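Trying the structure run again after the queue cleared.
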Amino acid sequence: MHEVLHAIGVFFHGLAAVEWKWLALALGLHLLKLVVRSHAWRNILAAAFPHSEVRDRYVLGAYAAGVGVNAVLPARLGDGVKLFLIKRRIEGSHYPALASSLFAETLVDLVIASALLIWAAAAGLLPGLSVLPNMPAIDWWWPINHPRAFLVIVGVVILLAVIGAIVAWRKVEELSAKLAQGIAILHDPPRYFGGVVSWQVLSWPLRFGTIFCFLQAFQVDATIHDALLVQVADSLSTVLPFSPGGVGTKQGLIVYMLKGKASATQLLSFSVGMHIAITVFNVLLAAISIALMQRTLRFRRTLEEAASDRAAESTSGA
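Done. Tokens:
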């Protein structure tokens, strides 16, 4: 992580060398990607709650708030905020259906990201298991170097999950019906492909375009192929979200996968610079969204209300 902190210093020191037009274009494409993805989610929610009005602006606000919170907090806590905000804007909605709607929203991502990872692995572009323990920026180092302890922890988590499933068995039918409601659009293929898949597929060129523009902004002589590699690194860094946005892991992977394109310091500066720019942008969008939807800028209050609301619904069985 020392190298990442050093890269942050280099990034701020070299801000004058950043190509601002490319930076502005990158952030513009990133914003457009959020709009496209939130519209796909809106179509999923409209199918799940056909008798309720689902407005694009509310879905975009909740989506942007969730992305911003996820940028600064680990374990995807922003998803809880996202569901909390949109639940208050859709009459008759409930958390099980809203949560399962996220599954329908990420199906296309799962397929495309898996295809990219398979491509990168088959081409020998990923670091091997013998390399990962020697990459200190990778926050997977502990499970890699302590496999037995990691497996014990995984076993305990699985055991607790099984016990929880047994305890909740009586409510399985009711819960299943609610979960199925969130993915109702999957039972209407024309509507799913037209209202979700098409928009989700469109979001991926916007992802690649955003990364390519950031590479140009930080004067890394790169190609679309390199932008694909950065996206692979980003996908891998979020598999195990030990840190917000996979910071550290992402930087280590990018330096390894783009070695030869620029110096390690320059690549770290690019990666950290892109991370800082997107994080600040996402947090600003989240602040604006929460302010408009909650009439407050107190993030902690919103998180506490989200947790309390979900706990109350779980207790009542609503």
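The longest helix spans residues 264-294. Worth checking whether this holds up in the mutant runs.
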